[in-house]
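User: I'm new to structure prediction. If I give you an amino acid sequence, what do you actually give back? Let's try with this one:
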Amino acid sequence: QEVLGLERVGVGDNFFRIGGDSISAIRLSHQMNKILGSNIQLTDIFKMKTIGSILESITVIKAEEGTEWEI
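Assistant: Good question. You get back a string of structure tokens that encode the predicted 3D arrangement of the chain. For your 71 residues, that looks like this:
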């Protein structure tokens, strides 16, 4: 929401269909990495396109590492 300047963004919304572009994707990956302590790459956002898909991926990686995290 903050990156795109929108009032509401759902976890299933396609980032690029709701106004995201390459510059905002860079900002999104930086924000997510900072807040979640993750390592989301720009290519991950282009590939997964939704916040839900990205969070699911982080959850799987954290589980494999044996680490916990909270949003």
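You can read the tokens as a compact description of the fold. Here is one thing that stands out. The mean pLDDT is 88.
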